[in-house]
Amino acid sequence: MSTDHQKYSTENQKDAIAAYAARHNLTIVRTYEDAGRSGLRIEGRDALKQLLEDVRNRHADYTVILVYDVSRWGRFPDADESAYYEYSCKEAGIQVRYCVEQFENDGSLSSTIIKSMKRAMAGEYSRELSAKVFAGQCRLIGLGFRQGGSPGYGLRRQLIDEHRVPKADLSRGEYKSLQTDRVILKPGPLHEVGVVQRIYRCFVLQLKTEVEIAAMLNVEGIPNEFGRPWTRGTIHQILTNEKYVGNNIYNRVSFKLKQKRVINPPEMWVRADHVFDAVIDSDFFLAAKRIIDERSKRLTDEEMLERLTSLLKQKGHLSGLVIDEGDEMPSSSVYRTRFGSLVRAYQLVGYDPGRDYQYIETNRALRTMFPEVLEKTLAGIREGGGTVEFDELTDILRINGEFTASIVIARCLHTQAGFLRWKLRLDTSLRPDITIAIRMDGENKDILDYYLLPSIDMSTDRLRLAEENGIYLDAYRFDDLDTFFGLSARNELGVAA
Prior knowledge:
By secondary structure, the chain is an alpha+beta fold. It has helices at about 10-25, 45-55, 80-90, 110-140, 190-205, 210-220, 230-240, 280-295, 300-315, 320-325, 330-340, 340-350, 355-385, 470-475, 480-490, and strands at about 65, 95-100, 155-160, 165-170, 180-185, 250, 255, 260-265, 270, 390, 395-400, 405-410, 410-415, 420-425, 435-440, 445-455, 460-465, 475-480.
C-alpha cells in the first residue's frame, strides 16, 4: 500500500486474505508486507523482493501465495512486469491465488484476459492519478504554497491555515497534519538572513568566488544549515535559488511515475513570483545570475571539456561534488545542461565513474562527519550534567569515570538484489562498554538511526545489519541519542535527615 487511509490498507488486506484462507482450509505461515510504499516500481519494495528471492532460491516454506487483488503486485507502467513476477512464482511450483477477484486464477483464457486488463488498468490508474496530482501541485505553486523540500539556509517553513493565518513554524521532520493547512517560506533567524545577504554582497560587490566565500565562513566558524562546513556547492546553491527573492518554482526536474529523471527547460517550469518574503533584493539576485551566466557562456563545449579533463588529471576521478568544489570550474548543473547529463560529459573525456569512486567520495564524507558527531555527543553528555574525557589516541570516551563508549559510523551498502546492508567492525581489543553504531541512510548523506550496543551482548568483532534485524539487535535501535544521554546524566540528590 502507498497510504494507510484507503481500502488497500494492510489491515483490510490481511482480513480479506485471512478470510479467504479460512474458507479454503489454508494456513498462513508467512506475510510479506510493503507498508507505505509506492507500487510504481519494485525499488523500495523490500518485502516483494524478499518474496521473489525466497521463491527463486527455493527457500519458500509454502505452496500457495495469497494476493489481495491483481494490482497488489504493483501499478507498473508496463503491465508485463507484474505478469513476470507472478510467472516467477508459478515457475517455482508455487500457486498464486487472488482473494477478492471475481475469477479463479486457473490459467483459463477468461482469467488470462481479465488479469491482463486489470494489470493495464492498474498502470492507467497511476498515470491518471499522476496527472491529477501534478495539476493540483501546479495550482498550489501558483497560489504561493511550498511543495516539500528543505527550506534552505536563512529560510524557515511556516504553517498557515486556509485563511493564510500563520499557525506555527515547522522544524525539520515536522509536517502539516490538516488537509486544509498549507506551508509557505519565511525568512529565518536574523543571523542566518545576515549571512545570506553577506554571501551575495561578497559575490556581487567584492567579486569573491564561491570557494573564497565558503573558506571565509568556515574560518569564522559559521556552519551551514546542517551544522557542517560550507562548500563551493552550498554557496552556489544559495546564489542560484530564486526562493531567496520570494519566487516559488516547480517542475524544474520531472520524475513522473518514478521512471526517468528529466531536467526540464525553463519554459516548462511552473512559477509564482514574489509570493514569499524576500531575503535578497531582486537586483542582487539578478546581478549574481549575470555573473554566473557570463562565467559559463564564455566557455565553449570544447573549453568546458578541457577543464573537465584537467580536473580529472588533477583529482584522479570525477563526481558532481568534485566539479562543484573545483576552482574556476563551471558547476555540475551547467555540465548537465550543456551535455545532457554528467555521465555523458564523463564519456566525452574518457572517464568511467564506476562504483569505486563513489565509495571513495562516501568514505571521505563520513570521515568529515565524525568530528561533528563526536562534538554533538560530548555536548549532549555535558548538558545532562555528566563528565566525559575523550582519548584522541583510541577514540574512546570515558563517561563520569564509570563506563566507556566508542562511536562507529556505518556506511550503507546496496546489494545486487536491491537490499540495504551495513557492516560494523567492533573494537574488541579496547572493549568499550557501549558502542554507538550510527547507520547512514541509503544515499549515505544523513543519519538513519543509532544502535547502542553493549559489549556484554556482543560476542563478535564484526556485525552485519539489515533493514530489520529482529528483537535481538533492534532492541538496541534508537532514532536519536537521548537514551544514551540519559545514561550519562547526573541528578542532584536531596539531603536526607
